[in-house]
Design brief:
Layout: H1 2-24, E1 32-33, E2 38-39, H2 51-64, H3 69-82, E3 87-88, E4 91-94, E5 98-101, H4 109-121, E6 126-132, H5 135-138, H6 151-162, E7 168-171, H7 173-179, H8 183-189, H9 199-215, E8 228-233, E9 236-238, H10 240-244, E10 255-260, E11 267-269, E12 277-278, E13 292-294, H11 295-298, E14 305-309, E15 315-323, H12 331-335, E16 338-344, H13 354-358, E17 363-369, H14 375-380
Parallel strand pairs: 6-7, 6-17, 9-13, 15-16, 15-17
Antiparallel strand pairs: 1-2, 3-4, 4-5, 8-10, 11-12, 11-14, 14-16
Length: 383
């Protein structure tokens, strides 16, 4: 009798597995998982000389390409949240609605070594390193749990490395944004369900960086706020971290943008010369009329190289920015000050060499958050 009961359970179970396995051959493999923010394993190439390697890759492939994976991930996430868990899928949920990514100790030795070497090689260029904040460092008092275990250590490491290198101007925007605003103000500067800040946080930081340039007499005037405008977009916001949770959290967020009032007169290029002129909306997000918008759709896209020229700018200088995505909302702010702004995203492939970029640079600004060792940027700096 017991054997019959066992068969009644086992046979349907394996039958369901076989059906699901058969269905997997009817669908195309997914390249990426937006919910997990990673690439998925593709069908492995058989290596008869290394059967263990092939076996492991087949296991990973079957796991990553399992049918209805998105539904299962969403169900798993919902069950974890229903149990009141706050540490879920490598994220921390603070105050029931703020999604915070975990932080890890980073090694900045390679990056900073290349930045210092570049500053020696180009002594006539003014080098700036802006240490941008991460959300968890800016908002340490959302609850009593210490969920940010590395940002302060990484910030201290960067400060220590650059100390004594007077040719590099370090702007500690992380501590500035953490210590000079109230918690209520800082909550207005960051998206709840994203890694990123909004235009309010980005604009405050950009203004601080420009003010530091003015205080050290690298530029002749501070930022003119009348050249900028802050707007709100009436749409739902697709946060990167909310996407990981299959939008189980509210998409009702305050969406702000910052733009230059005279941006229509700026000229935009994908080339170091004027051969590849492009429209503004190929660089600046054009999703403002959409019902649902995301970070890239409302700020600048993560483009490998672009150049903006403002002939009426007060500073007749070229600013080169090496960025991560926190820079995206700030482009118009810098363009309102400098005659030419070149933005480099070394995470993408690039044909313009570092030496070519440096030929016309008056200032170089690294805009990288405090936990980002920027391996791609380090590799791009050809010293």
């Amino acid at each position: 009798m017991d054997n019959k009961k066992a068969l009644l359970l086992i046979v349907p179970f394996f039958a369901i597995l076989l059906v699901i396995f058969a269905l997997s051959f009817l669908d195309n493999d997914n390249l990426n998982s937006t919910e997990e923010a990673r690439a998925l394993t593709q069908f492995p190439v058989m290596d008869l000389n290394n059967p263990q390697y092939t076996t492991n890759n087949i296991n990973d492939y079957v796991t990553d390409q399992f049918p209805y994976r998105k539904i299962l991930l969403k169900t798993y996430s919902a069950l974890e949240l229903m149990q009141g868990k706050r540490d879920v899928r490598d994220l921390y949920i603070a105050d029931g609605q703020w999604l915070l990514s975990k932080t890890y100790k980073a090694d900045f030795t390679q990056l900073t070594g290349h930045v210092i070497a570049a500053s020696h090689k180009y002594p006539d260029v003014s080098f700036w390193y802006a240490i941008l904040p991460v959300k968890s460092y800016c908002l340490p008092d959302l609850d009593n749990y210490n969920y940010d275990t590395a940002s302060a250590e990484n910030l201290a490491a960067l400060q220590k490395i650059f100390k004594g290198h007077q040719q590099i101007h370090v702007v500690d925007a992380a501590d500035y944004m953490r210590n000079n605003f109230t918690t209520a103000q800082k909550k207005q500067q960051w998206y709840k369900t994203d890694y990123h800040w909004n235009a309010l946080g980005a604009a405050a930081t950009a203004e601080y960086i420009i003010d530091q340039m003015y205080q050290t007499k690298v530029i002749s005037a501070p930022l003119d706020q009348t050249k900028l405008q802050i707007n709100q977009i009436d749409a739902l916001y697709q946060g990167d971290l909310n996407r990981r949770f299959s939008n189980l959290f509210s998409m009702n967020e305050t969406i702000t943008t910052v733009s230059a009032v005279d941006c229509d007169s700026y000229r935009y290029y994908f080339s170091a010369d004027d051969s590849q002129s492009v429209a503004r909306d190929t660089i600046i997000g054009s999703a403002n009329d959409s019902a649902i918008v995301d970070y890239s759709g409302i700020y600048t896209y993560n483009i490998a190289y672009y150049r903006v020229v403002n002939s009426d700018a007060p500073e007749k200088k070229t600013l080169v920015i090496f960025k991560d995505s926190l820079e995206n909302p700030t482009t118009d702010i810098f363009c309102s000050v400098f005659e030419q702004v070149i933005v480099m995203d070394a995470r993408n492939s690039e044909l313009v060499t570092f030496a070519d970029v440096m030929k016309n640079a008056d200032l170089v600004l690294f805009m990288l958050h405090q936990n980002n060792p920027a391996d791609e940027t380090r590799a791009y700096i050809d010293i």
